[in-house]
Amino acid sequence: MTNKHFDKAAATWDNKPRRVQLAEKISAAIAKLPLNTTMSGMEFGCGTGLVSLALAPKLKKLTALDTSQGMLDVLQEKIDEQQLDNMHCLNADIFQDAYRERYDLIICSMTLHHLEDAAGLLKRFSELLNPGGYLAVADLVTEDGSFHDPAVKGIHHDGFSTEALEKTLTAQGIINIHSDIVHTIKKETTQKEYQIFLLTGQKK
Ligand SMILES: C[S@@+](CC[C@H](N)C(=O)[O-])C[C@H]1O[C@@H](n2cnc3c(N)ncnc32)[C@H](O)[C@@H]1O
Fold first, then answer.
1. Could you read off the pLDDT of 70-119 as tens digits, one per residue?
2. Which residues is 72 bridged to in the sheet?
3. Fewer Cβ within 10 Å of end Cβ, the chain: N or C?
4. Residue 181: what are its φ and ψ, rounded to 5°?
């Protein structure tokens, strides 16, 4: 599978300090979950691994999954350079019935808004979690559509209402749901502020 927009953006993705800082805030907030080195994790839409690389040392193993081979190639270089042996890259469609891996932690950072069927993705996450496993979803709080450059394709949601996501997750058997604002992005181009939430929960 591939994704032309992200393939093209991959080589310079980490050059924007705003992205690196956001990933630091999100991974620091996820690290407050009771993670341990018996746990198997997966980041859906890992990109260049800014979040995954920070959390992998706290887990037994972490699958960094994306449909952009360009993004995964950048991440693989980092994994090789740092000689990390508990992280691997995977280009796969988790909606395929054949995808049967199960996880103790699923992370989705700034990727939910790229999926047209966001509720379907949350349902799939619940199916892929082991009982007691943790879900951590970070994304934009509902905004006016000005966050992304209009030239960027594949933006299906102008952020989310955390209340609506909580209801969807509850219906999918996720319990102990908490939501926090973990970062605020100020954009010079629009002179606006955009809030980023982290929603966490556990599979029943
Ligand atoms: C905005 S980037 C976020 C990257 C990373 N999670 C972070 O926080 O730095 C979104 C990523 O989601 C990936 N993506 C989009 N649709 C996807 C899908 N259906 N399956 C897997 N990855 C997807 C893109 O290729 C891209 O790498």
1. 999 999 999 999 999 999 999 999 999 999 999 999 999 999 999 999 99
2. none
3. N
4. -90, 120
Whether 71 is in the pocket of ligand 1, judged by its Cβ within 6 Å, is yes
Residue 1 has pLDDT above 80, yes or no: no
Of 28, 30, 61, 67, which Cα lies nearest the Cα of 47?
67
One-letter amino acid of 21? Q
* Whole-number Å distance between alpha carbons of 46 and 44: 6
Name residue 11's amino acid: A
Q: How many CB atoms lie within 10 A of CB 22?
A: 20
Q: Which residue has the tokens 């496993």?
A: 133
Domains of the chain: 4-203 (3.40.50.150)
Spatial distance between the Cα atoms of 162 and 141, rounded to a whole number of angstroms: 7
Q: Which of 13, 90, 111 to mutate to test the pocket of ligand 1 (most atoms within 8 A of CB)?
A: 111
